[in-house]
Amino acid sequence: MAVSPPSQRLSLPVALSFASTALPIAAIGLVMGVYLPRFFAGHLGLSMVAVGAAITIVRLLDLAVDPLLGMAMDRTTSRWGRYRPWLVVGAPLVMASVYMLFMADTGVSEGFVIGWLLVLYLGISIVTLAQAAWGAALATDYNDRSRVYGVISAVGVIGAVLILVVQLAVKGSFADSVHAMGWFCIVLLPITVTLCIWISPERVAPKTTGEHASFSDYWKLITRPEMMRLILADFVMALGPGTTAALYLFFFHDARGYTGPQTSILLMFYIAAGLAGAIFWSWLAQKMGKHRTLMLTSVCYAFTQSALMIIPKATMALAIPGMFAVGFVSSAFVLIVRAMVADVADEVRLETGEERAGLLYALVTTTQKIGGAITVGISFTVLGMVGYNASEGAVNTPEAIRGLELCYVFAPIILVFVGGACFIGWKLDAARHGEVRRQLDLRDALAAEAGVLATNSGVSLPDAKA
């Protein structure tokens, strides 16, 4: 398979093939965040507290998984590459757990849900972490990273839109639509993983030391000022919109008076806006810098999210552009943070001589899991405390509806503002990263020449850090 030279701009076909696995993973994530909580509470008969507790328990148990996976990926060597084998391992886990959860019927226990959610999160962690770390090695240029992670985000949006089309096309019950969405993901995942590993090149950076990092070395990575900022920003920027995902159906159906099909249509516009948003924000990040773009989007998010309360109830003509605006803005958060982590990974490799992209991406994906655990657990608990009833056909009090509105609209704004503030005074901009890449490319070229010399003459040159 081909090897891409340093700092080469990836062609669009290669970028699309690499990003293809984001399509089913994003579809699964949408169903998990929006439809599965209601499926568990409404169809399977689990209580709101039980559903919130199950998801919280799983995500708390899952917290240690990503750093361990990151360490393992950073140390992986095979003739297939560093990240391809992990995609092959993760895909079957996702497929099996999607089948067990999405096809579940009444009578399953909370333990059943917890067990298969653990398998599902493990599989998704493997696939998403392998792709994110692979992307850091695949796109080495500061601006091309914004473009490539923008393509990944755009492909994920397409997957989310397609799963909504599947949901709308099913004329049966709510459970029937969840079953259909499950089969869609199960069929699509192996196709996209095969496309990714067959077409995408993988360039493994040469090592300048032969040592494995200790836990103290990993702690130094976590406490780097840049990573601490990115971890906090990723946490709160995932926590904010994550709150809205779990409460979306309840908010728009019960609080704002939209029908089931209308809520799906609104969600489709929200998701579809991410396609335009991914293209726009990745372009803007190349023009004004990634950190400045994130600060701008945090302010824009506050305006668009607040506007949802101004829109009159059950008014599709105004709700559609409102949801499109929120989706357009919030699409910037994940893709730009992921691109910035790749920049930090380059700086770390320059200083240490070791690849740590897997672990660094594990740190930010772990923050998203913490955020997910907090949002579902706390939101569902608060709704239960104010007397909100999630059962189909239930009639809720005005106080319960008001609590639902406050949780959905205003809590995310504060969190996203904190995330934008994390990038005030950010130093690793395009100029600094360009110098880092120049030194890395020079050192990698020297390492390659030393390898050729050792092979042809038997003379080995000592390792050196640039």
From TrEMBL:
Biological processes, Gene Ontology terms: carbohydrate transport
Alphabetical keyword list: Membrane, Transmembrane, Transmembrane helix
InterPro entries, A to Z: MFS_2, MFS_trans_sf
Gene Ontology CC: one annotated term: plasma membrane
A Pfam family reported for this protein in Swiss-Prot or TrEMBL: MFS_2
GO molecular function: symporter activity
Transmembrane parts of this sequence: 12-36, 42-62, 83-102, 114-136, 148-169, 181-199, 230-251, 263-281, 293-311, 317-337, 358-388, 408-428
Family indicated by similarity: Belongs to the sodium:galactoside symporter (TC 2.A.2) family.
PANTHER family: MAJOR FACILITATOR SUPERFAMILY (MFS) PROFILE DOMAIN-CONTAINING PROTEIN, MAJOR FACILITATOR SUPERFAMILY DOMAIN-CONTAINING PROTEIN
Name by which UniProt lists this protein: MFS transporter
Species name: Phenylobacterium glaciei
